[in-house]
Design brief:
With 161 residues, this protein is mostly helical. It contains eleven helices and two strands. Strands 1-2 form a two-stranded antiparallel sheet. Helix 3 packs antiparallel against helix 10 (136-145), helix 6 (65-74) crosses helix 7 (79-86) and helix 10 packs across helix 11 (147-159).
């Protein structure tokens, strides 16, 4: 029962990180990638992002040039002003948010720039993409704070038995 799977998911995910790492290292990536879309769909029938928003509260997406152009325009700001007001460059040379939680996250967990949000936000938690099985460190991190990513890895492991 999926609801049961999500009970105490944070604790279970924390305890199973080593198992996830082993699974991602050995899984048939092509088979897993074929399974992901259906599991992703199921996950989002069980997980309501608006009740969580851990991603928006604790992490920053990368803001690529098209994102900066689109968001600046929607906020009626010059790109340089948007960058100065909201962004910084991280250790990997990417633009990320200066602060946490995301300044565009409302108290109701709704995003004030949702229609123009960065591509990383649109794609998160990558549970319907090859990234989920190909970028192991990212997936391990995401399963530690995102109930949908946790749900997908658990279901993917179950399907691979």
């Amino acid at each position: 029962m999926p609801e049961e799977l999500l009970k105490n998911w944070e604790k279970k995910s924390s305890e199973r990180q080593k198992l996830y790492k082993q699974f991602l290292a050995r899984v048939d990536k092509n088979k897993a990638i074929r399974e992901l879309p259906a599991i992703h769909e199921e996950a989002f029938t069980q997980v309501d992002c608006l009740t969580c928003a851990n991603c928006c509260k604790n992490y920053s997406p990368r803001f690529k040039t098209p994102d900066i152009k689109r968001i600046s325009k929607s906020l009626s700001l010059k790109e340089s002003v948007f960058i100065e007001k909201f962004l910084k460059i991280d250790d990997e040379g990417d633009y990320v948010l200066q602060s946490k939680p995301c300044p565009f996250l409302g108290s109701d967990n709704h995003c004030s720039i949702y229609e123009d949000r960065p591509s990383d936000c649109r794609r998160f938690p990558y549970t319907d993409e090859d990234v989920f099985v190909k970028r192991q460190q990212l997936t391990l991190k995401n399963t530690s704070f995102c109930p949908a990513a946790y749900f997908v890895i658990e279901k993917l492991m179950e399907a691979s038995k």
